[in-house]
Write a structure and sequence with these properties.
This protein is mostly beta strands. Helix content is about 5%, strand content about 50%. The strands form six sheets. The chain has an eleven-stranded antiparallel sheet with strand order 21-22-23-24-25-26-27-28-29-30-31.
């Protein structure tokens, strides 16, 4: 790095001082999560709004019924049971059919605190996996809205259920942040009478647009002093749960929740074991940069998840995610696996086993799942048969070329899974084919005797559900996802116990969906790209100043709804915000809108 760039960086830091000292969160990886503590300040200053850029949820033009399920202050909750509330569908709601149900999480916090992962469950079924925002001295506020309509059969059940929230938070003299949380559900009544039979018929080939009749959770049983998720500790750890399904199921989709932590929080930057051994490194996360969540049914692999690289709000450089949070951090993506082709093997009234593992895992991964089942209400028993099952062994190519602490590492991986089966119900005989086709590439550079790391990673995650309907009708769904990750991370020793930590990050989540395999234009497309540049000055392992900026372009397009947002920020301040929605040609522009009236980084 040239001397002119050094001068520019320090000029920025001089203009944007961040007068705090914070302990760096230690982890066994070159990448770290960092904590930025805040000095005492004016209590009358307004809190800063944090947010994740995403499209709004489209709701009908009806007045919703609302229910505040839980209000709680999460102080010292680590190692304690989840917070519980009794849930019942609101008795004063006059409606019985709903076209949209939305969960809204509202939270505030003030002081100093790490990012905390949390989960929300109803009767063991996970509804939301998320990460908290890291607070500042003047306080922060953030909201998460999630469409939870797919859980309607559970939410509308006429009985009292257990609503649970787990957030493992620590509060002491250093970590002072208490998360004040409010969770509300909104039930939007249908505009017209819903044709349930038509909905089932049109969605026999896809569980995405229709609502299941029954949801079976695959999570840990209460009581617990932890979250209900399973914890995968290493590559040999397999979590298995027995289950039994009703004998009148005609469709099944497994929804998988995934998050990664501790030594695998930055798995995409983990070093190969031969590099670690050759350099006698200790306390460094290894097993290379490839990870795969494997789902098995009675010991046979039925699907895989190659997860999106979610960066939590304290990850890499926390200044990047203030106030614009990283893609997926406030609402972690879930992944659907079609189980319908295998129904012929499990419609026997017997107990079966569902298993979860993570290839190359280090501690720790949090995984659970929900099995969505569609029932034939006109029959007590359906029947089916698995016709074809093909799994190509995981193809891994790994090449290391290094001398000492400097070198390049290339990892390429492919995976193909295909299954076909038929199910006979009163809707007719439907043959369903499910295909997963995945590819992965990771190019990593280590330089400057291990102080420089560059990572370029791309994941292609494609799945297809193709259903042959009665009377020769076909229903197909395709999802083509592309996950991008780029990192430039440089550590620069300035002497006297002072160093510069420079990080440039790019995240991309792109997806095209097709409702008919033969059409050339997607039914919806998402292009979500985020770039950040940040510098931290560290002295004796304390963050003493820093500056960061983030830019994001979000474009969603479908045949019914369009939404785009182009936004940038620097040090808590929004510099540019352009929003287009409902496919309008005219755009709304907002320039220089500061979320805080204080100067950059003056908390």
């Amino acid at each position: 790095m040239s001397s002119s760039l050094f001068s520019f960086i320090f000029f920025l830091l001089f203009l944007n001082p961040f007068f705090t000292e914070a302990n760096l969160h230690r982890s066994k990886t070159l990448l770290k999560s960092s904590l930025i503590s805040q000095p005492d300040t004016n209590d009358t200053a307004p809190p800063t709004l944090f947010f994740e850029v995403t499209k709004p949820i489209i709701v009908p033009n009806t007045k919703p019924c609302s229910l505040t399920v839980l209000q709680h202050d999460f102080g010292f909750t680590y190692g304690k049971p989840p917070v519980f509330a009794d849930y019942s569908f609101p008795s004063d709601c006059p409606y019985q059919e709903f076209s949209k149900i939305v969960l809204e999480w509202n939270a505030t916090c003030k002081g100093t605190q790490f990012d905390r992962i949390f989960g929300v469950w109803l009767s063991g079924v996970e509804l939301l996996r998320s990460c908290t925002a890291e607070p500042r001295a003047t306080g922060i506020v953030w909201s998460v809205q999630k469409d939870i309509t797919r859980y309607s059969s559970l939410l509308l059940t006429n009985k009292t259920q257990t609503f649970a929230v787990y957030m493992g938070n620590l509060v002491d003299k250093t970590y002072t942040g208490v998360y004040h949380v409010n969770i509300t559900l909104y039930f939007y009544p249908a505009v017209g009478k819903m044709d349930l039979f038509k909905g089932k018929w049109e969605n026999l080939g896809s569980g995405v647009d229709s609502v299941a009749d029954l949801i079976i959770p695959f999570s840990r049983d209460l009581p617990l002093n932890d979250g209900l998720w399973y914890e995968i500790e290493d590559a040999t750890d397999v979590k298995v749960r027995e289950f039994e399904i009703p004998q009148n199921v005609y469709k099944a989709v497994l929804e998988v929740y995934v998050s990664f932590h501790e030594n695998d929080e930055f798995w995409y930057g983990n070093l190969p074991n031969d590099y670690i051994a050759a350099n006698n490194l200790t306390g460094v996360a290894g097993n290379g940069p490839f990870r795969e969540v494997v789902v098995s049914l009675d010991g046979e692999v039925v699907g895989a998840v190659w997860p999106f690289t979610v960066v939590y709000t304290g990850g890499i450089n926390p200044l990047l995610w203030r106030p614009i949070s990283a893609i997926g951090s406030f609402d972690l993506p879930t992944y659907d696996i079609e189980i319908t082709p295998f129904l012929g093997n499990i419609l026997d009234g017997k107990t079966h086993k569902l298993g979860f593992s993570v290839t190359n895992a280090l501690n720790v991964w949090y995984i659970d799942a929900n099995l969505h089942l569609w029932l034939d209400g006109k029959s007590e028993k359906t029947e089916g048969k698995l016709l074809q099952y093909n799994i190509v062994p995981l193809g891994v190519s790994s090449v290391s070329d290094f001398k000492g602490l400097n070198g390049t590492f290339v990892t390429n991986t492919t995976r193909f899974i295909s299954s076909t089966g038929w199910v006979k119900s009163t809707y007719g005989t439907v043959t369903t084919k499910f295909i997963q086709n995945l590819s992965y590439s990771n190019f990593m550079v280590m330089g400057k005797d291990g102080n420089l790391q560059i990572v370029n990673q791309t994941i292609h995650f494609d799945d297809i559900v193709h259903a042959k309907m009665p009377a020769s009708n076909f229903d197909s769904r395709k999802s083509f996802k592309k996950f991008l990750f780029h990192l430039y991370s440089d550590y620069l020793d300035q002497g006297s116990g002072t160093s510069l930590s420079v990080a440039n990050v790019t995240l991309g989540f792109n997806e095209k969906k097709y409702k008919d395999a033969d059409v050339s234009l997607p039914s919806s497309s998402l292009w979500n790209l985020q770039k950040g540049q940040g510098v931290m000055v560290v002295k004796n392992n304390l963050v003493v100043s820093g500056v960061a900026s983030t830019q994001q372009t979000y474009n969603y397009d479908s045949n019914k709804f369009c939404y785009s947002r182009n936004i940038s920020s620097s040090n808590y301040t929004i510099l540019h915000d352009e929003v287009k929605n409902a496919c309008n040609k005219r755009a709304k522009f907002h320039f220089g809108y500061g979320l805080s009236k204080l100067g950059p980084f003056l908390a």
